[in-house]
Design goal:
Two copies of one chain form a homodimer. By secondary structure, the first copy, chain A, is of the alpha+beta class. The first copy, chain A, is built from eight helices and 21 strands. In chain A, strands 1, 2, 3, 4, 5 and 14 form a six-stranded antiparallel β-sheet that branches. In chain A, strands 7-6-19-10-11-13 form a six-stranded mixed β-sheet. The two termini of chain A are about 35 Å apart. The model of chain A has no long low-confidence stretch (mean pLDDT about 95). At the A-B interface, strand 7 and helix 5 of A face strand 7 and helix 5 of B.
Chain lengths: ~350, ~350
């Protein structure tokens, strides 16, 4: 089943069930007004939503409306938790190699994970708004899951069963703020502005064979200023599955329903800078930092700039027939202006 | 005005207005069912809540009920953001001194802040539940504020004006998990289990002269196993005011209404181990780590153990007449057991 939240519903959006082909949708206020509400009561609510989904796909829904991605907020416009792993160790290996450092052995068994801000996500087609280009704006294309309630100390198997939804995310980073912030020792805060998620979140069963061992085995398509930039397979080189990431998150505390757990920047192992870009036959990248690390490793310094005002980023994933699964994250970098109220 | 959330309201609690003396309360479902709902619509809702508050205090409320702290969840049982500063640099100085390291000069102008988990707080009288005593359970008694919406790049003055509520918090830490986790570079995650907040959150005006320059100038009373453990003044030695902490948090992103910003462990400058305990005439401590740092600095190693199963922690603040302002956080350390559903 596919779910989205329309901006018309206010701070938490209006939950709609979306047809598989992303053409129609239906609000379900009598079942659950918001996605958080559905997640809070999932066992009771999900079967009812599935019925609506079946009718939408059959063209027999009586209240179907056109589904418009631009009218969507992120599926959870604000969430009680957003934590992000670094499951693609290749990315970490490149970071370290670029500064001539070793990857600690423990990184292959103990996931890196940071607690992100979840109070003010932006919509999938909203701009990446920053006050200063010099902060070093970078995209990070990732996959993320939404959990139900998870008990403290959940096993990996239990964690796998607690995954309710899958979606895409652009976990924007302010690269030039990261070194100082991490040097302080308490992790990211200012260097991680608002993330955006794909218009649609889907249940794992919707992904068919592509969802296996709690990994999503399909290429993640990233387009930068209308040029292909990345298409690494999100199921490859993922050192930690989503179930492992969720279990890591639940080691010392319960996770509340609606917790979002991210994969970290998707990254496939490739040989070198020359062969890694899509133009040269590689699978490309899911963040600019990765190109810059290849450049640093091979040329001593980065050459590709971070994002500038006016740059556009599109993140999408298609099924084997070429149809978009989650809709597209489609953002432009702009200067932030305060909302007028 | 004083506000609380009763557990009877479910995941988000039932908002009640509480009388100044914490004796009576009244639910206000027609005005706002939950505290988050009130914060989302504060300008419209607050004046209506103030009227109920005035009636409660005058003894003329028609629907007043007894207020029972044990029936409370944290004022926001789950929140969209919980970030915690380290505003009392004395604490950081002791940490560094205990390992013979200098405090970077930037720490006096650029606050340390970490993003905490906010999806599953526990109630003020709920146990501190852990799976393993060996994790090194420590209390951290702090003050926290709840904000309204804050625009990106808000000035310190604007941030001060966005502070809606003040409360107390026990930001439990798992000390023995911290070194490994911070060494990974991404900040705290597993080492910060669920926090608990005081039963009652109050508007800044309720604090009178004690709320000055966005600091709360009253002693924070910490009791450990029924013995006085700390009473440092939360208004002293606070290097960064709450307004500065909120402005720091909003530098690169908007803060959503209901964001909780903490002060970090309250800590006053004291001379040495001998003179710092309450028994020896000092103001004591708000976490066990601080005693242990004094012990390490003076004796080479810590002597005081972390919390064990059965230990109790009480955190409270009283006004000049001796009346409790926020009610008490009153927790016992226990082994975690899964909820039966």
């Amino acid at each position: 089943m596919k779910l989205a939240s329309l901006k018309s519903g206010g701070r938490d959006g209006l939950l709609v069930v979306v047809s598989r082909d992303l053409v129609t949708c239906q609000a379900v206020p009598k079942i659950a007004r918001t996605l958080q509400c559905a997640l809070d009561n999932w066992d009771e609510v999900a079967p009812q939503l599935e019925k609506i989904y079946a009718r939408l796909n059959a063209g027999s829904a009586d209240k179907a409306e056109s589904f418009i991605e631009e009218e969507c907020h992120s599926p959870l416009p604000r969430a009680y938790q957003w934590c992000d792993g670094s499951a693609y160790i290749n990315h970490v290996e490149l970071v370290r190699k670029a500064r001539n450092a070793e990857v600690p052995e423990s990184f292959y068994s103990d996931p890196l994970m940071y607690q992100g801000g979840s109070d003010s996500f932006v919509g999938p087609c909203d701009p990446i708004a920053v006050l200063d280009e010099a902060w070093g704006v970078d995209l990070e294309a990732e996959v993320a899951v939404v959990t139900g309630d998870v008990p403290m100390g959940a096993t990996v198997e239990e964690a796998a069963g607690a995954i309710r939804l899958v979606m895409l995310v652009n976990d924007v980073s302010l690269r030039n703020l990261i070194p100082n912030e991490l040097a302080k020792g308490f992790g990211f805060y200012q260097s991680k502005p608002a993330s955006a998620f794909s218009p649609v979140a889907v249940t794992p069963d919707e992904l068919g064979d592509a969802w296996k061992d709690s990994k999503l085995h399909l290429p993640l398509q990233v387009t930068l200023n209308d040029e292909p930039f990345g298409r690494p397979n999100a199921g490859e080189d993922m050192t930690f599955s989503f179930a492992q990431l969720v279990a890591h998150a639940a080691k010392t505390r319960e996770l509340g329903a609606g917790s979002i757990v991210g994969s970290g920047t998707v990254s496939n192992k490739q040989g070198s800078l020359h062969g890694s870009s899509i133009a040269n036959g590689g699978v490309g990248y899911c963040c600019l930092a990765e190109v810059r690390m290849y450049e640093t490793i091979e040329g001593g310094k980065p050459a590709t700039p971070y994002l500038a005002y006016g740059d556009t980023v599109r993140i999408e994933m298609v099924d084997e027939s070429g149809a978009s699964i989650f809709g597209a994250i489609d953002q432009e970098v702009v200067r932030y202006h305060r909302r007028t109220t």
